[in-house]
Design brief:
The complex is a heterodimer of chains A (about 325) and B (about 325). Chain A is mainly alpha-helical and about 325 residues long. Chain A is built from 13 helices and four strands. Chain A has one domain: ABC transporter involved in vitamin B12 uptake, BtuC. In chain A, the strands form two sheets. Chain A has a two-stranded antiparallel ribbon. Chain A has a two-stranded antiparallel sheet with strand order 2-3. In chain B, the strands form two sheets. Chain B has a two-stranded antiparallel sheet. In chain B, strands 2-3 form a two-stranded antiparallel sheet. The N and C termini of chain B lie close together (about 10 Å). Classes of the chains: A mainly alpha (about 325), B mainly alpha (about 325). Chains A and B meet through α5, α11 and α13 of A and α5, α11 and α13 of B.
Chain lengths: ~325, ~325
C-alpha cells in the first residue's frame, strides 16, 4: 500500500515538470524570435506589426483551440475548414435578407452571429454522433464533412461568391475596441475560456480522462460518449466563429477559399504547442504559443525577403523539430 | 468469420461500382463508349497510384498526408526535365517522390514521431519545394521529346497510365497476399508491439511502405505533368484525403491490419465515377448540377460506407460472441 502511494506521488510530481519544460521551451523560442526581429527586422517594434500578426493568427488560433480540446480527448477534427466555409456562407444570406425579410439590420446581424455558429456546432455534433454511435474513427468521421462540407457551403450560395459591405456585421473582422482589433479580443476570450474549462472544471478533468484512457474513464463512470459529442460540438462552434471573422475581414464569402487547409495549420499549432496527438493532455496555452511561433517565424521570413514557399519548408522543419524535442523531454 | 467479413467488405464496393455503372449505361448514351471509358481510366490513374501507396501505409496503421503536395512537386520536376526526354524526367519525378517517402520513413522510424505529424510536415516541405522550383507558376512540358507519351499515349488501344495501374495493382495484390512482406505489413497494422516482439523487421517494413507511397505520389505527379502538359505546383491539394477516402470506401480499416489492394482500386473508381456521372447528367441538359454536388455525393458515399462497415463489424463481433 505504501509502495502504491509512493508511485502515485511520483506520477503527480512528474507531470507538471514535463509540461513546465515544454512550455518553457516554447517561451524561449518565442523570445529568441522576438529578439531576432528587434535586431534585424525594420519597423518591428510597432503597434501595427503587433496587430498584423495577431489578426493573422486569430482565426487559426480560434480553430486550434477547438482542435486542442478534440485532440485532448483522443480524437481529431479534419472538418474545421469546411465548417468555417458553411458558417461563412450562411451568415451573409441572413443579414442580406436573402432568406427572410428581417425588420432591421441589427436583428439580421444578431441572427447572423448566432445561427451560423450554432449550425457549425450542430455539424460538429454530427461528427460526434458518428464517432460515438457508430464507433467510427474520428479521422474518418470528420473526413466525411471535410469532403462534403465545402460542397454544402457552396450549395447555399450556388457556388457564387457573395460580396457585401455591412459595417454592423464586419466589426468582428475589421473593428477595434480601445485600439485592439475585435477579432483579437474574441480570440483572447476564447483562449481564456478554454484555459479555465480545461484546467478548472469537471468537464476538463473528464475530457482528459477520456483522452488518456477511454476504457478506464468508462469504468470510472464518466459518460464518455457525452464528453466526446460535446468536444466536437465545441470544435464546430470555434470553426463557426472563425468562419464569420474571415468573411467579415474579406467583405466576401467565398466557400471555395474560406478555411482552406486550416485543419492542418491548427493541428500544427497544437503539435508545436506540446499537446500530444495521442490524447490525454490539452495544453491550451501551449497551443497559443505554438500558433504565435508559427506565425512569427513566417512573418520574420517574409519581412526579411524570404519567399513564402521557402517559409513553408522552414515551417515543416519547425514542426518536426518541436515535436521531436517534446518527445525527448517526455521520454 | 473474419474472412467472410473481409469478403463482404471487398465485394460491397464492387457491387456498388457495378450498380453505378449499370445506372450510367442505362441512363446515358456513350457512357460505355470507348472514349469515355478510356479517358476515365486515364484521368483516374493518378488517384489510383496515390491510393495504392496510401493503402499500404494505412494497412500498417499509419497515414501519409504528404502525397498530394509530393505529386505536385514531382510534376514540376518532371516538367522541368521533359525537354531531355521521357526517361530522365520520369526518373527524376518518381525519384523526387521516392525521396520524400524515404525521408518520411527515416523520420518516423528514427525519431519516433507520429506519422500524422511527420507527413504533415513533409507535405508543407514538398509543397514549398515545388513552388520554389517552379517560381510560383506552372511549368509547361516539352511536346517534342516524347515525354507526354507516358500520360497521353496508348498501347494496344489502352491508355499507358492504365496499363501501369494494372501492373502495379497486380504486383501489389501478389505482394500482399503471397509474399512475407505483405504479411509483415498486416501484422504491424494489427499490433505493432506484438509484431516487434515476434521479431518482425517493423522499422524496415514501415520505411519501405512510406517509400513506396512517396514513389507512387511521384508517379502520379509525372502523370499530372504528362496528361495536362504542365507541371503544376499548386495542384494536389486535398488529394491525400481523397486517397484516404478511396481506401476507406474500399473497406480497408484505418486502424490497420486489414485491407485489400483491389478494393482500394474499386474505391478510387467508385468516387471517380460519381464525378463522371455528374458530367453526363449535366450533359443531358435537364438539370444543371454544379460541381459542388460532386463533393456532397462523395461525402454521402463515404458516410454510407462507414455506417455499413460499422454495422457489419458489430454484427460479426456479436456472432463471434454467441458462437
Amino acid at each position: 500500500m505504501a509502495a502504491l502511494n509512493k508511485s502515485a506521488d511520483a506520477f503527480e510530481f512528474k507531470l507538471p515538470s514535463v509540461s513546465w519544460f515544454s512550455r518553457y521551451g516554447n517561451i524561449v523560442a518565442l523570445v529568441i524570435l522576438i529578439l531576432f526581429n528587434l535586431l534585424f527586422t525594420p519597423n518591428f517594434a510597432t503597434w501595427q506589426t503587433l496587430n498584423i500578426n495577431l489578426t493573422q493568427v486569430s482565426t487559426i488560433l480560434i480553430v486550434a483551440i477547438g482542435m486542442t480540446v478534440v485532440i485532448g480527448s483522443g480524437g481529431i477534427d479534419l472538418s474545421v475548414g469546411s465548417l468555417m466555409a458553411i458558417a461563412g456562407a450562411i451568415a451573409p444570406l441572413i443579414f442580406l435578407n436573402n432568406i427572410v425579410q428581417l425588420p432591421n439590420i441589427y436583428v439580421g446581424v444578431a441572427l447572423a452571429f448566432t445561427i451560423p455558429v450554432l449550425l457549425a456546432g450542430l455539424f460538429g455534433l454530427f461528427n460526434g454522433w458518428l464517432i460515438t454511435r457508430y464507433k467510427v474513427q474520428p479521422i474518418v468521421a470528420t473526413l466525411i464533412l471535410f469532403i462534403a462540407g465545402r460542397g454544402i457551403a457552396q450549395s447555399f450560395t450556388d457556388s457564387n461568391q457573395v460580396i457585401f459591405t455591412t459595417p454592423e456585421f464586419q466589426f468582428i473582422g475589421l473593428g477595434r475596441l480601445f485600439g485592439i482589433p475585435v477579432q483579437v479580443i474574441i480570440m483572447c476570450v476564447i483562449v481564456a475560456t478554454a484555459v479555465w474549462s480545461v484546467g478548472r472544471t469537471i468537464f476538463g478533468k473528464h475530457l482528459l480522462a477520456v483522452g488518456g484512457n477511454e476504457a478506464a474513464a468508462r469504468l470510472a463512470g464518466i459518460q464518455v460518449d457525452r464528453i466526446k459529442r460535446r468536444v466536437y460540438f465545441i470544435s464546430g462552434i470555434c470553426s463557426g466563429i472563425a468562419g464569420l471573422i474571415v468573411i467579415a475581414r474579406n467583405s466576401a464569402a467565398d466557400s471555395n477559399l474560406v478555411g482552406l487547409g486550416v485543419e492542418l495549420d491548427a493541428i500544427a499549432a497544437v503539435a508545436v504547442g506540446g499537446t500530444l496527438l495521442t490524447g490525454g493532455r490539452a495544453n491550451v496555452l501551449g497551443t497559443l504559443m505554438g500558433a504565435l511561433i508559427i506565425q512569427l517565424v513566417r512573418f520574420t521570413l517574409l519581412a526579411n525577403g524570404v519567399p513564402d514557399a521557402a517559409a513553408l519548408v522552414v515551417k515543416a522543419g519547425l514542426i518536426v523539430l518541436a515535436v521531436w524535442l517534446q518527445r525527448r523531454v517526455s521520454a | 468469420m473474419s474472412t467472410v467479413l473481409r469478403f463482404m467488405r471487398g465485394q460491397g464496393v464492387l457491387v456498388a461500382l457495378l450498380l453505378l455503372i449499370l445506372f450510367g449505361a442505362w441512363r446515358y448514351d456513350n457512357f460505355l463508349g470507348s472514349f469515355n471509358i478510356l479517358s476515365f481510366l486515364r484521368y483516374n490513374s493518378m488517384f489510383a497510384f496515390i491510393a495504392f501507396g496510401m493503402c499500404f501505409v494505412i494497412m500498417t496503421g499509419g497515414i501519409d498526408l504528404s502525397v498530394g503536395s509530393t505529386a505536385a512537386m514531382s510534376s514540376v520536376i518532371a516538367a522541368y526535365l521533359s525537354p531531355h526526354g521521357l526517361l530522365p524526367s520520369l526518373m527524376a519525378g518518381a525519384g523526387a517522390g521516392l525521396a520524400v517517402g524515404m525521408l518520411n520513413g527515416i523520420l518516423l522510424t528514427r525519431l519516433n514521431i507520429l506519422p500524422f505529424i511527420v507527413t504533415l510536415a513533409s507535405m508543407l516541405a514538398a509543397s514549398g519545394t515545388g513552388l520554389l522550383i517552379a517560381g510560383n507558376k506552372s511549368i509547361g512540358v516539352s511536346y517534342e521529346s516524347g515525354f507526354t507519351e507516358i500520360g497521353q499515349g496508348d498501347i494496344f488501344g489502352f491508355p499507358i497510365p492504365a496499363w501501369i495501374v494494372v501492373f502495379v495493382f497486380l504486383f501489389g495484390s501478389i505482394t500482399l497476399n503471397f509474399l512475407p512482406f505483405g504479411r509483415n505489413v498486416l501484422a504491424i497494422g494489427g499490433g505493432e508491439d506484438a509484431a516487434r516482439l515476434m521479431g518482425l523487421p517493423v522499422d524496415r517494413v514501415k520505411f519501405t511502405v512510406y517509400s513506396l507511397s512517396g514513389l507512387m505520389a511521384g508517379l502520379a505527379g509525372v502523370q499530372l505533368a504528362a496528361q495536362f502538359g504542365a507541371g503544376q505546383p499548386t495542384e494536389g491539394v486535398g488529394w491525400e484525403l481523397f486517397a484516404i477516402a478511396s481506401v476507406v470506401v474500399g473497406g480497408t480499416l484505418l486502424s490497420g491490419g486489414v485491407g485489400s489492394v483491389g478494393a482500394s482500386l474499386s474505391g478510387v473508381l467508385l468516387l471517380g465515377l460519381v464525378f463522371n456521372i455528374l458530367n453526363f447528367e449535366n450533359g443531358m441538359g435537364l438539370v444543371s448540377l454544379r460541381a459542388h454536388w460532386q463533393s456532397i455525393l462523395r461525402g454521402a458515399f463515404l458516410l454510407i460506407v462507414v455506417i455499413v462497415q460499422s454495422r457489419l463489424a458489430l454484427r460479426a463481433r456479436q456472432r463471434m460472441q454467441s458462437s
